[in-house]
Amino acid sequence: MVTSQKDLLMNKQANNFFKKSPLVHCITNEVTCESMANALLYVNSKPIMAVDEREFKELFEQTDGLLLNLGHLSINRQEQLLAASQEALHTNKPTVIDVVGVSASSLRKKLALTLLENKPTVVKGNTSEMRNLCGLKSSGRGVDGDSSDQEKASLQELSETLKKWTQQYPATSFLATGETDIIVTPHTSYYLKNGVAELDQMTGTGDIVGALIASLLGQGIESEMSLVGAVSYFNLCGESALTHCKKPLGMADFRHELFNELSRLYKKDDWWQQVKGERI
Ligand SMILES: Nc1ncnc2c1ncn2[C@@H]1O[C@H](COP(=O)(O)OP(=O)(O)OP(=O)(O)O)[C@@H](O)[C@H]1O
Ligand SMILES: Cc1ncsc1CCO
Ligand SMILES: [Mg+2]
């Protein structure tokens, strides 16, 4: 069943996305840190990339949202992520955990599961990472997802497992990305169907989606709408970017156009009319 935009909650509220300018604190990987900071600025948000625990107390008094990305793990980074997650729990800060590379090492998986205990607002990863996190068979390699984990039966198995997880972790909503995105909140679940394959051939797309979710949460938008909104917005930017590229496609052109679209699509009324998906 493909539902209408109204059912997908992409109602007039979506026209208010990115009108506010939340300060988003990101502890993220060095690979895509600059792309993430610029993506946030392009949607009228303010990024601060800060990892020194001695600053956290003061920073948490100013920030609207927190993004914790496991992409570049080290002993120091683990301590920073744990300290920020503790502070977020104590200050009720809207928090997104991106479980980058969780299928690659047991160290990342253990850390992700520890962070989950601190009641983050959202836990996200690509479909292979989220399957691994849930203890399901996963074909992910490194930080990349595998299309075999996107087969219909695998998506269904993951969404059903995540629904059980929301009973165990009622403060948290979950997102698994890929050609089809799965969103599972304690109340509702969705498959979302926007985007283009080129988004999988560029590093940092998932990282940026995590930051956009933190931005929407930081604008006071509740979890379900922030998740549907951030994924759909980013994927519609990808669709539009592709139409602006000359053929044969060069990925550097696609990247350029994707960032252009991030900075302008939200200024168009009713951009959300093109959202595709279904409640499950
Ligand atoms: N084949 C595809 N078709 C349509 N959209 C896609 C496809 N692959 C990824 N996307 C979209 O691209 C975004 C990033 O998803 P992806 O699963 O590639 O994240 P990721 O693996 O965490 O990325 P990265 O590790 O590079 O940050 C999501 O919004 C997702 O919906
Ligand atoms: C390639 C890569 N390695 C660690 S993080 C990262 C960026 C995608 O998340
Ligand atoms: Mg990722």
Notable characteristics:
280 residues, UDP-N-acetylmuramoyl-L-alanine:D-glutamate ligase, 9 strands, 14% strand, globular, binds 2-(4-methyl-thiazol-5-yl)-ethanol, binds magnesium ion, nucleotide-binding, thiamine biosynthesis, transferase, Hyethyz_kinase
Please provide a written account of the structure.
Its cofactor is Mg(2+). Keywords: ATP-binding, Kinase, Magnesium, Metal-binding, Nucleotide-binding, Thiamine biosynthesis, Transferase. Substrate binds at residues 49, 204. This protein has 280 residues and is of the alpha/beta class. It has one domain (12-279): UDP-N-acetylmuramoyl-L-alanine:D-glutamate ligase (3-Layer(aba) Sandwich). The chain has 9 helices and 9 strands. The protein has helices at residues 33-42, 56-60, 75-91, 106-116, 127-133, 152-168, 205-218, 223-244, 251-264; strands at residues 23-27, 46-49, 65-69, 95-98, 122-126, 173-177, 181-184, 189-192, 277-279. The chain has a 9-stranded mixed β-sheet with strand order 2-1-3-4-5-6-7-8-9, sandwiched between helices. The longest helix is centred in the last third of the chain and has 22 residues, at 223-244. The radius of gyration is 17 Å and the shape is globular. The N and C termini lie close together (9 Å). The model has no long low-confidence stretch (mean pLDDT 95). The protein binds adenosine-5'-triphosphate, 2-(4-methyl-thiazol-5-yl)-ethanol and magnesium ion. Adenosine-5'-triphosphate binds next to helix 7 and helix 8.
